[in-house]
Amino acid sequence: MKNYLALVYCLSLAAGLHAQLCEGSLGDPVINFTFGAGTNPGPPLSTTNYKYVTNDCPQDGYYTVRNKTNDCFGDTWNYLDADHTGDPNGYFMLVNASLEPGDFYVATVKGLCPGTTYEFAAWITNMLRAYACGGAGIMPNITFHIENLQGDVLGSYETGDIPPAKTGSGAGVWKQYGLYFTTPTGTPDVVIRMTNNAPGGCGNDLAMDDITFRPCGPTLNVSIAGEAVDTASTCSGQNNIYTFSSQVSAGYHNPVFQWQSSTDGGATWSDITSAQNTQYTKPETPATGEYLYRIEAAEKGNIDNSACRIHSNIVGVDVNALPQINVSKNYTLCTNDTLILSATGGQAYNWTGPNGFSSGDSLITVLGPPVSYSGTYYARATSNKGCLITDTIIVKVSQAAVASAGPDVSICQGNSVQLTGSGGVTYSWSPATGLSSPGISNPLASPADSTLYTLTVIDANNCTVKDSVAVNVWKVPVADAGPDKRIMEGQNVQLDGSASGTNVVYVWKPVYNINDDSNLQPTVNPDHDTTYTLSVISLVGCATATDDVFVRVLQNVRIPNAFSPNGDGINDTWNIQKLITYPEADVYVFNRFGQPVYHSKGSGKPWDGTLNGSRLPVGTYYYVIDLKNGLPKLSGWVQILR
Asked: How far is residue 26's CA from residue 48's CA, in Å, rounded to a whole number?
């Protein structure tokens, strides 16, 4: 008891104005109320009698749970863009205090240890800006109470007036307030209570976060033997063993200790079996990772209850991975290969090898005569954590065979040629398009277009060698004399010939009324129907192609404008010369009243001036002739004379 009283006394003197907060070491929280995090703050609190609202700026006697706040009550409140820990997704309690003083947070803590000191604390900020309420705003004033279940006060602390933040930026400033007390014998459960002492009105507005109830005890400090820092660094496989030593200030009457370790960054801790002394020697840790350690302490009889323990600072050992060294090719190379060495995972490298070779690069392409590659290469790689690894690479060079894909060849389109590969044990041609079998030395190649084939051979030493051969494909001739033509007698027309093929010439036949028989599109002017033939001739022996075009020559008809059907044997009929060349022609003759008096279709037979066997009277008649040749109809007049 004497040591315990000395602890309380020392803590009180050392703390000064902050004497109500623990100045020694703390344990893990028995309660740790953070008001939640994420997208939903959860339901209204059961630990307050204030009324819950969902809006950002609660009125007097109301509270809300938010992860940020600003622009409240005409911008007279400070703004918060995160909770006390700086988490933008974390929530805090925002309170507009009641008009009447009274309790606003009450909770019960169970399972405490007798004769153990605990700290009850919360982080609070005054939300009112200094200039608000004419500079005379009401400041929050809170009393922290610890009571037994019968209502007897075991400890209390008053914050006094909590002044507004004077940052000038309008941002709220968090500050921790609280008290510590000692549990009497037979009091495992207590009530924690926060009372608002100030009246409501203009001011008395606050935010609160991270309410904790934690064991408090003497100062526990852990160090690593031989290390000036809290974290030692080693490399995998170095088998370093570290000793941790703890120092504890006066305060416990009969302390008991327990070492703990964590491998998840301190999220969870596990007791180390048989590690209850003030010193602990860590065994060899072969696996890479971050290993954390701390020591916990409590009065004898309480060490098995986590609600009674305090813990030290955290020390750690980082076991760092070794860098990796590898070679990107087989150790046995071929004379046509390039040696490529690479190392990964390091920060610095050092290579040495045959013929004075050295390099400090991680990726190396060794250039030079292939035979100079042979020999032993030594590699050293150092990581950014100072971990070093060495390796040895023995490189042998084998003589590669000479591959041949044969000479370049040319073929006519649609023909084949046999390729002749040599120099290997296995063969592979690419592309496979047009090949009878790409996996043999001498496939038949029938490409549709000119193709460069690459032959890859693997010889008896497993060396890979390549060669290429070009197969040029000559396109066969194609002739197109164009569409048939039609002209009137005495006219000319241009033929629409076209041709394709590799290295070809052109010629038209017959050489009759044509201006250039070697031109694909010559001009012709035959005086009668004529068929012209276009020949496209390959000069590289890929045959000849032909095509015909028919030119129809339409004769000019001559239409008399008078005849005398009087039986004297002279000009007795209306005879239209060359009409017979239009077998589909329609001929109509009308009198001056528009009545048809003669019709003929395709016969070309002369008209004798009669209608139904009766002679027509002398006069002028009108004709319409449709030659059915796609040209406009012919019309005019003709006179019957006697």
From this structure: 27
569-588: b or e for each residue (b if 16 or more CB lie within 10 Å)?
eeeeebebeebebbeebebb
Tokens, residue 116: 């153990």
State pLDDT tens for residues 337-357.
788 888 777 889 898 988 888
The C-alpha torsion from 158 through 160 and 161 to 164, rounded to 10°, is: -80
The DSSP-derived string for 228-295 is SSSEEEEETTS---EEEEEEE-S--SSEEEEEEEESSTTSS-EEPTT--SSEEEE----S-EEEEEEE
* pLDDT per position as a tens digit, 612-627: 989 999 999 999 999 9
- Please report which confidence band the pLDDT of residue 168 belongs to, taking 50, 70 and 90 as the band edges: low
Q: Which of 212, 210, 211, 194 is nearest to 97 (CA)?
A: 194
- For tokens 């509270």, the residue is 63
Going by pLDDT thresholds of 50, 70 and 90, the confidence category of residue 240 is: confident
Mean pLDDT of the chain: 88
Going from the C-alpha of 591 to that of each of 180, 576, 611, 614, 617, the distances in angstroms are: 137, 19, 11, 14, 10
With beta carbons less than 8 A apart as the criterion, state whether 576 and 587 touch.
yes
Give the CA distances from residue 511 to residues 290, 531, 533, 596, in Å, rounded to whole numbers and listed in that order: 98, 11, 10, 48
Q: Residue 9: is its pLDDT beyond 70?
A: no
**Two structure tokens written together for 285:** 């840790």
Tell me the CB-side half-sphere exposure of residue 231, using CA atoms within 13 A: 10
> β-strands 523-524, 493-494: how paired?
antiparallel
Q: What is the largest CA-CA distance in the chain?
A: 171
Helix, strand, coil shares of the chain as percentages rounded to 5?
A: 5, 45, 50
CB 83 within 8 A of CB 34: yes
**Cβ(336)–Cβ(370) below 8 Å:** yes
The sign of the torsion formed by the CA atoms of 68, 74, 77, 78 equals positive
Who contacts 103 (Cβ-Cβ below 8 Å, separation ≥6)? 49, 193, 194, 195, 196
Q: Whose structure tokens read 């043999």?
A: 440
Cα–Cα distance measured from residue 211 to residue 120, given in angstroms and rounded to the nearest whole number = 8
Q: How far is CA 470 from the centre of its chain?
A: 41
The β-bridge partners of 635 are 624
